[in-house]
Amino acid sequence: MSYSDEKNMAGSNTAAPITSSLSKLQSLNGLFAIYKKQGPTSADVLNKLKETLLKEAGVQNPNPRKRKKQSLKMGHGGTLDSAASGVLVVGVGNGTKMLSTMLAGSKKYTAVAELGQATDTLDATGSVTDEKDFQHITKFDVEEKLNNFVGNIMQVPPLYSALKKDGQRMSVLLKKGEKVEAKPARSVTVYNLTLQEFKPPFFTLDIECGGGFYVRSLVDDLGKALSSCAHVKELVRTKQGQFTLEEHALHEEQWTLEHVLKSLQPCPDSEKTPDGMAAPDGGT
């Protein structure tokens, strides 16, 4: 047998499993959850996930949008702010059509807030716009005011958000220096709201809410209700729908076909949706 024959045989032996892995990856239909770390956007995390899975399947320099045979239809349900971390639900294949259903379920967050300072983004990434005294605020005061934010309440979404104006995200327009008016107050639902820790100027909240709710707006409103001001310092989503951070969220080292297959909640075969579709913003 010549060297060229041996080389050809070796090539054929490696091609089969790569093709098989890619086909298996592209045939997935369902939902699973990953861990989004603090820093990147939800879209950045999704693209990193797709790239990682395609590379494992043997695709060189993967670009799902460039070559049809490399396409991997995947989307995320419920945008997490760049500064937030936690559960991000991912739909793959026909599972992208189920993402809006996930947003109808409850979500849970743990938020660390800071009293005495307000910011333009309502979190620690923004510029300080106001400073007020908070020495008068007690643990009892916070717990008492929290009762006003449970149930069906009206809430104004933050200016810096993934909500859109004229087809562009409001946060992007603001960063370009354009003027943006706040969206009208809308009805949102808070199922549970508890104070876990109070160490001024910081306090920690556990929140269970419905879709469209913004933790940043809650903390900003709470600060005003306490005759002071406040912003979100840290935010973690611990649950979205049936997926929890502890039990279901795959960390980056687990972004493999094997782990996805184990975690995947399958869905019935149905009409396909466009690549990369993300469900409407769920609010953070």
The structure class reads: alpha+beta
Overall number of strands: 14
Query: Helix coverage percent of residues?
Result: 25-40%
Number of helices: 7
Describe what this molecule looks like in 3D.
- 27% of the residues lie in helices and 29% in strands.
- The chain has 284 residues and is of the alpha+beta class.
- Strands 1, 2, 3, 4, 7, 10, 11, 12, 13 and 14 form a ten-stranded mixed sheet that branches. Strands 5-6 form a two-stranded antiparallel sheet.
- Strand 5 and strand 6 form a beta hairpin.
Give the gist of this structure:
This protein is of the alpha+beta class and 284 residues long. The N terminus is likely disordered.
Q: What characteristics describe this protein?
A:
284 residues, alpha+beta, ten-stranded mixed sheet, 7 helices, 29% strand, disordered N terminus
Task: Outline the secondary-structure elements.
Elements lengths: L2 H24 L3 E7 L5 H15 L17 E4 L7 E8 L6 H6 L2 E9 L1 E3 L8 E4 L7 H8 L4 E5 L8 E2 L2 E2 H6 L10 E14 L2 E8 L5 H11 L4 E11 L2 E2 L12 H7 L1 E2 L18
